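Revision sheet: structure tokens.
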Amino acid sequence: MAKSALLKSSIGKKYWMALTGLFLCTFLVGHLAGNLQLLVPNNALHFNQYALFMTSNPAVKLLSYLTYISIIFHAVDGILLAIQNKKARPIAYAKNDAGANSGFASRNMAVLGTVILVFIATHMINFWAKMHFDEKMPLQKITIELQQGMKNDFYVTTDGGYIPVNDPAYVIKNRVEFFDTAANVKVKEGYKDLYKITFDFFKDAKYGLAFTLFYVLAMIVLAFHLFHGFQSAFQSLGANNPKYTPAIKLFGKLFSIVVPTLFAIIPIYIHFFSK
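Predicted:
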């Protein structure tokens, strides 16, 4: 009974919104730390090694599933809270000056959250889905200069080696595995080239600028969402101690500015400044 009330009550929903929101904030920091590698020139190997680790390590995969659940729970809970709040006040006040009592972000959290949810969906389609399911996902290649100025393309393998591209001695199976053609035995494994996919996406001759602007706009929306949501989460959890509240508010404001800004810099750098 108590558990049911905790999940269904307004206070319970705010409690779970706070917990999932703060967990997703930690996810943002980790995701940002990995993506900042894209700002390092000629860093394809290290970024693809990071991508392989994030998609193959059992502990990270478990955290990924927890993140997916948290996103869904946070979104659904937010929608239910918005509906519940609207029902609680079915008749608008004769005179309502919302801006006098609350900021833009606090008045529009549901709208901001919906935009972010749309962004997450498009982001996962363009990158996560390709990484996991696209049969045409490219493998990382490198061009090596051989004798007499001749250059050949090679696949980079996870053991630090190379396999010539289009070499009939090998066949690619399961998207990343190299098998000896004659013996039908797996000999090496390659890297999915998420680095190339990302750069091609934002540098696309036709839509690259639009994609870049969309991502920057989404980060602005995220900044507004975090600006109110971060400190609101601590309030929902009962952290209203006058001794710590100013520090929480300051950290929340800095977090809501720094994290989205760094995320926005990545597509801007790729589209406008990378070669």
